[in-house]
Amino acid sequence: MANHSQFGFQDASSPIMEELVEFHDHALMVALAICSLVLYLLALMLMEKLSSNTVDAQEVELIWTILPAIVLILLALPSLQILYMMDEIDEPDLTLKAIGHQWYWSYEYTDFKDLSFDSYMIPTSDLPLGHFRLLEVDHRVVVPMESPIRIIVTADDVLHSWAIPTLGVKTDAIPGRLNQTSFITTRPGIFYGQCSEICGANHSYMPIVVESTPLTHFESWSSLLSS
């Protein structure tokens, strides 16, 4: 959950999000080094007297041609690695289907016979004390922690987007099409997200809440809900 005046990312709760945060820091350090070098050269040119002598500087031209290529490679390689990791779905322990509607989400646990529900935002007037306004729902998505989860996302009417920032997950929900992604929660907790595609007048009122619990708690919850 983001805090007021927070400049950085939310605390990562999945391996993919941890990789994304590390790559962001890596790219930021590269950009900081480039900006520092450019500012130093600008200051040097302003303070030094300009010379009209034409000097053959093939070594300098070679450096400023090869150096940017090396920098781009240092940025591209980890970026491609993360992209392939985000597309990898390897034998999930649980499959969850999320269906976007105007303006709520429906969830189906396809590994269970009768386990599905609709998830609506709790109005401010009915919100319990201490819960987050515009983010809390009447039925949370409960998943076992440290287990690979595959989520299949689609929509019933217009474009939606199922997004949980702290898990590093964002998948478009398109009518007539199934998109899939996966995640693993590394710790127990409650993770909040929202529809990230403008989908109509109440676009801001269809939040997403994922609750990560130990496996024993998840089994008790699923047995209670499906009975």
Automatic annotation (TrEMBL):
TM region positions: 27-47, 62-84
GO MF terms, alphabetically ordered: copper ion binding; cytochrome-c oxidase activity; oxidoreductase activity
Example GO BP: ATP synthesis coupled electron transport
Catalytic activity from the UniProt record: 4 Fe(II)-[cytochrome c] + O2 + 8 H(+)(in) = 4 Fe(III)-[cytochrome c] + 2 H2O + 4 H(+)(out)
Signal peptide residue numbers: none
Co-factor remark: Binds a copper A center.
Gene Ontology CC entries for this record: mitochondrial inner membrane
Cytochrome oxidase subunit II copper A binding domain span: 91-224
Location relative to the cell: Mitochondrion inner membrane
Domain spans labelled Cytochrome oxidase subunit II transmembrane region profile: 1-90
Keywords: Copper, Electron transport, Magnesium, Membrane, Metal-binding, Mitochondrion, Mitochondrion inner membrane, Respiratory chain, Translocase, Transmembrane, Transmembrane helix, Transport
Key word ATP-binding present: no
InterPro entries reported for this sequence: CcO_II, CcO_II-like_C, CcO_II_C, Copper_CuA, Cupredoxin, Cyt_c_oxidase_su2, Cyt_c_oxidase_su2_TM_dom, Cyt_c_oxidase_su2_TM_sf
Domain of life of the native organism: Eukaryota
Family recorded in the similarity comment: Belongs to the cytochrome c oxidase subunit 2 family.
Function: Component of the cytochrome c oxidase, the last enzyme in the mitochondrial electron transport chain which drives oxidative phosphorylation. The respiratory chain contains 3 multisubunit complexes succinate dehydrogenase (complex II, CII), ubiquinol-cytochrome c oxidoreductase (cytochrome b-c1 complex, complex III, CIII) and cytochrome c oxidase (complex IV, CIV), that cooperate to transfer electrons derived from NADH and succinate to molecular oxygen, creating an electrochemical gradient over the inner membrane that drives transmembrane transport and the ATP synthase.
The protein, known as: Cytochrome c oxidase subunit 2
Source organism per UniProt: Stercorarius maccormicki (South polar skua)
